[in-house]
Specification:
Two copies of one chain form a homodimer.
Chain A lengths: L11 H21 L5 H12 L5 H8 L3 H13 L3 E5 L7 E5 L1 H25 L1 H17 L12
Antiparallel strand pairs in A: 1-2
Chain A binds a DNA duplex (30 and 30 nucleotides) through helix 4.
DNA sequence: GACAGGGTATCAAGAGCTTGATGTGACGCA
DNA sequence: TGCGTCACATCAAGCTCTTGATACCCTGTC
């Protein structure tokens, strides 16, 4: 509560982690009610914005390995929510597209996520909501530039 | 639809997730150099601030289940970094404490995390760093109050 | 003193993701 | 034209965390 224990628990790194966990705990059960997990929603949402993505591109966007994407894509195809199409140049690569029913399911799940985001914006206020986004973006872009200290075993 | 920049990728929920992933990608390799994973560090750091925590309390603080804590505690005991002590009232409960060498290892890992946090604060500026912390905390406290929409199948 | 209730610890089974390694097809360059 | 390089996809093994279920101990109530 005070700033005495700010030494560790109050750092941005720690607070950011807790915020993400709280977000996960809120959205996962809500999404499961419409039949998708958080990972599946991430795939659907990205395909909704950028149709024709490949598995590898999807992996980079969602921050996981390409191997983790394969089972997700398999499930979604099995349920008829997305489909593979041959890439015009690479015979080996498959473009992924939402089907019509996939678009409907994505819209249903997206409505929930929009509702959650609206709740956050209402809690923070419009201006601070925007600032939070800006600050987070600056954190994201600044992190790759960090080099760990030279193992100061001292 | 109405919010051009709210197009999924710009929402706080999505940005927050990417920020946490970027943070994870930065800190995990750095911590591994001193021999601990992110989860192990979380246990050590919490025990450093609040000695005598039980496994269940530790689980709540780090946001995982008690079952996930057990293997972590086992590893740390095996390496001599922490130790169990009998709880004064409950024979069944074990308090966890850092050993002397555990304190040293925690300090080494913590130096890295402090360095990372300092990098973020330098990138953002002192005032905005503080504000980011405040905004994240408000997100954390506001999230449990969210109730999902009543599955409006439209 | 007996009993229900809450909290802790632990076992078992399952899902999800990661690292490691392999095969294939497209592109740049001599 | 032939070769080296790179990106995509996929198989296999291992680790970590999760959900589900069980047993134990303390505390409050009758």
């Amino acid at each position: 509560m005070t700033f005495d224990d700010a030494e560790i628990l109050g750092r941005v790194a720690s607070t950011l982690r807790r915020a993400d966990l709280a977000l996960l705990a809120a959205k996962e059960p809500a999404l499961r009610k419409v039949g998708v997990s958080g990972s599946l929603y991430a795939v659907l949402a990205n395909l909704g914005v950028k149709p024709g993505l490949t598995g590898a591109e999807l992996a980079r966007l969602t921050g996981v390995t390409p191997q983790a994407i394969a089972p997700l894509v398999g499930k979604l195809i099995e349920r008829g929510l997305i489909e593979r199409r041959a890439h015009p140049r690479h015979a080996n690569i498959q473009e992924l597209h939402l089907t019509e029913s996939g678009r409907r399911e994505t819209a249903r799940a997206d409505r929930i996520m929009l509702h959650l985001d609206t709740h956050i914006r209402d809690s923070l206020g419009d201006q601070e909501y925007r600032q939070l986004r800006v600050l987070l973006d600056r954190v994201i872009t600044s992190l790759p530039g960090w080099v760990p200290p030279p193992d100061g075993s001292s």
